Amino acid sequence: MNILYLHGLESKLSDEKRVILEKYGNVIAPELDYKSNPDAIQNLYDKFKNQNINAIIGSSMGGFAAYHLANSLGIYALLYNPALPYRNSVVQNIPSDLPKKRSPLMRIVLGGQDDVIKAKDNLVFLSQNFSELKECTIQIINELAHQIPVAIFEKQTEDFFEELCY
């Protein structure tokens, strides 16, 4: 299995989280500069559209990009505190000509204590764009803030891959 991991703004995939993901397959984790590249989604689509990517995992700004890529490539997605309702401080263009294949399964993990990307704002966004989703699981973890601790990452990732096996 090939897993595409998209990190958040000014972040990267930690070694601990990479080890967790490698239990499930080959991990591809490009370094992205969202601030200087407003066309990151188009660039990622162009780079990976013909590659055998089975699942995409994204966090924060990476979750925003992963949401749109999963729904254009038609692949499974796990999103941690995705920046779906926010695009004011960092411009990211959503290409209008991306295919609409829809992710067959999307798991979204939201932090109840996240003061960077509020869970309720994501829920409003998702309710307004529900037609873009085939099957979606939303997990709200009340004690979770914006940063994803390794233990929560491990548990949610395990649950995600278990869902794919059924």
From TrEMBL:
Protein name: YqiA/YcfP family alpha/beta fold hydrolase
Native species: Flavobacterium xylosi
Entry keywords, A to Z: Hydrolase
Record bears the keyword Hydrolase: yes
Family annotation (InterPro entries): AB_hydrolase_fold, UPF0227/Esterase_YqiA
Keyword Metal-binding: no
GO MF term set: hydrolase activity
